[in-house]
Amino acid sequence: MHTGRLVHEAKLNTKVLSDSDIASGAVDLFCAGENRIVEQGAKIGIHSWCCVNDLTAIELPKDHPAHKDQINYFTLIMGAVNGPAFYFHTLQAAPFDGVHWMSDEDIQKWKVSTQFISK
After folding, report:
1. Are the C-beta atoms of 112 and 86 separated by less than 8 Å?
2. How confident is the model over 60-96, as pLDDT tens digits?
3. Prior bond to 51 cis, omega within 30?
4. What average pLDDT does the chain have?
5. Fewest beta carbons less than 10 Å away: which of 4, 55, 88, 107?
């Protein structure tokens, strides 16, 4: 999150190419870009995290303090509405030890990309 804040504050652009494969924290970092460019075919994987007192993130109430830093981060980089909504979507998408590969439609729906380049 610290590196993502630096990327965001510097207004740097991020891009994943059609043959890119990013997941987990790499998605968090990618989302920090001022302009987030995704070429069709890129694989973007999201999932939950683990653990607080043997509970995974999705098992914690939304107002649990363990979510605070992530909510603040995603609010900063993706906005007050979409940021927290996307964060909680990542928790529901796959368990901490799995990955959900987002479809092109999901990438656009959740505003992971600000520019989607179709083939």
Report:
1. yes
2. 999 999 999 999 999 999 999 999 999 999 999 999 9
3. yes
4. 97
5. 55
